[in-house]
Amino acid sequence: MSERFIAFEGVRKSYDGVSYVVRGLDLDVAKGEFLTLLGPSGSGKTTTLMMLAGFEAPTDGTITLADNRIDSVPPHRRNIGVVFQNYALFPHMTVGENVAFPLKMRRLGKAEITERVRRALDMVRMASFETRRPNQLSGGQQQRIALARALVFEPQLVLMDEPLGALDKQLREHMQLEIKHLHARLGINVVYVTHDQGEALTMSDRVGVFNDGILQQIAPPHALYETPANPFVATFIGENNAISGEVVAIENAVCRIRAPDGSIITGHAGEGLKEGARATLVLRPERIQLAPAAEIPNRFTATLKEIIYHGDHVRLRVSACGCDDIFIKVAAAQDIPVQSLGSTAVIGWAPEDCRALALS
Q1: Which of 37-46, 155-164, 336-345 is the least confident region?
Q2: How would you class 339 by CB atoms within 10 Å of its CB: exposed for 0-12, middle for 13-18, buried for 19 or more?
Q3: Coil vs helix vs strand at 30
Q4: What 8-state DSSP symbol labels residue 288?
Q5: What is the pTM of this model?
Q6: Of 217, 200, 225, nearest to 353 (Cα)?
Q7: What is d(CA 159, CA 83) in angstroms, rounded to the nearest whole number?
């Protein structure tokens, strides 16, 4: 990791003094990094963001920004831009007045405010909307204005809490790329909160996955997808088939798992596995092959239960290895050897395409 910019050390947060919504958080963020905090509702990701913003105080631990402790510094003195899901634009102000507001609060001169507002609106491609009011803008346009207002005072860090949650799918995907490109151009730090795994994988340098107040894993998107640390991360990030079984043997980084029907599956061994213990074997739907080559060691007979059409791909739900809900993802143009419900076919996958994880 390059130069450390943000650090959480031993941070915990409790609202009642009994239960903790964030537990023992140790997290370093590099200078210029785009970090996404991902997790289900109530996992602790938004509370972590609010502590960084200064809207919540940690119960224990320290938070530093550029090597300065900020856990007791009020929000307006942290030089942090914040973008919320509801945009929080002032309805009685024009676009230009909304963007200028943080600068007026900092008592900048009129000429400098005018120039900075112009630059910020140019940055988000909204210069021609300066005299309009928020209710005259679409959701995507309001989001751009909220982003311009967060950037106009040139903060060292921008925090975003579910900023695209209210937008439709097409506009949300467009804004994901807009924000990603803006981050690359400006080189500022972004800490982004979402429960949308696709959004996290698309935009981030690294993703931190939260559950039950604990940071489960933090890694670049590719590493998180390909090498999840535990069953929760594996099932939360993307689609995954999960097959429970018993560890029969472990040798080097390879293990053999006995599936519910007695079949033996060979896969990559995750950390903490022990022979005779229960484990979860995770396998991406797109890694399962129909009519696999003879040299593929994991070969099993599957019975077709359901065909689900998705336009560019088809998902097959099959029964195999003693599991009724194994999903296979294939391109829509690909020939499918099973067409009628109840028919059987051989499926298979390479050992390196599945991963056995210890149950916590």
Answers
A1: 336-345
A2: exposed
A3: strand
A4: P
A5: 0.88
A6: 225
A7: 6
List, for residues 284-333, the tens digit of each pLDDT value: 999 999 988 889 999 999 999 999 888 888 999 999 999 999 999 998 77
Region at 132 (left for phi over 0; alpha for psi -120 to 50; beta for the rest): beta
Any residues with CB less than 8 A from the CB of 293 and at least 6 apart, and which?
none
* Rounded Cα gap, residues 150 and 254, in angstroms: 49
Would you tell me the crossing angle of helices 95-105 and 139-151 to the nearest 10 degrees? 20
Beta-strand pair 264-269/254-258: antiparallel
- Specify the DSSP class assigned to residue 73: S
Six-digit token pair at 106? 């900092």
Looking up tokens 């008592």, which residue turns up?
A: 107
CA–CA separation, 35 and 124 (whole Å)? 21
Three-state SS at 258: strand
- Cα Rg of the chain (Å, integer): 24
Reported as type and span, the H/E element at residue 304 is strand 298-309
Asked if residue 80 lies in contact with residue 155, where contact means CB atoms within 8 angstroms, the answer is: yes
Q: What are the tens digits of pLDDT across the range 115-164? A: 999 999 988 889 999 999 999 998 888 988 988 998 888 888 999 998 88
Which token pair is 350? 């390479």
Q: Residue 24: phi, psi to the nearest 5?
A: 55, 50
Measured between alpha carbons, how far is residue 11 from residues 16, 20, 63, 259, 295 in Å? 16, 10, 8, 40, 50
Cα–Cα dist 158/148, whole Å: 11
Q: What are phi and psi of 116, to 5 degrees?
A: -70, -40
Q: Which residues pair with 65 in a beta bridge?
A: 6, 68
Q: How far lies 48's CA from each of 3, 108, 116, 240, in Å?
A: 21, 31, 30, 27
Contacts of 161 (CB under 8 A, 6+ apart): 46, 49, 82, 83, 84, 85, 193
Residue type, 319: S
CB within 8 A of 292, min separation 6: which ones? 299, 346, 347, 348, 349
Q: In this structure, which amino acid lies at residue 213? A: G
Q: What does the alpha-carbon distance between residue 137 and residue 239 come to, in Å, rounded to a whole number?
A: 36
Q: How far apart are CA 38 and CA 36, in angstroms?
A: 6
